[in-house]
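I hope you will forgive my troubling you with a question about protein structure. The record follows directly beneath this note:
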Amino acid sequence: MALTETELALAQAAIAGDRQALSQLLQRRGDYLYRTAYLYVGTQADALDVIQEATTKAVSAVRHLREPGYFYTWFTRILIRQAQAVYARRQRETSVAAVPERVAPATDPVVALDLGQALAKLGANYRQVLDLFYYQDLSITDISGVLGIPEATVKTRLRRGRAALRDVLGGDYNG
């Protein structure tokens, strides 16, 4: 997630303590941040809560960001940690049978529901990389940076996640 020159200048100002610059940075890629949060938590209300919590944490921690060019990667990591906390809390509160509403790239609602239910059954590590790769269109390198794991680990989780998804859906699933 490369920053434009304007975004880089805003990131430097945000690190220096300019809250208005931080706000502008977050607004510039608000759609991306919302989609990321939504993919993890599955509801609009929870996604907005995640963004709010992540922003609150970012305001207090932005001065510790060493490299302004990695602002969005840094913020996305905060966002994902917050989303995982909300998701885990909600999983404890709801029954195992309840499946969170999820966005799916499929145009057929039945396929989208099946895919959403199948993704919910996967482990968090697999669901995380599949969400970032397929729903957010991040490259393996970007996913590695966002999650703070080696690229080889991302590739392994993608491969194993696809296999697990195929097992959950059934090997010959066509929709």
Q: What stands out?
A: The chain has two domains: 1-101, 104-175. The mean pLDDT is 82.
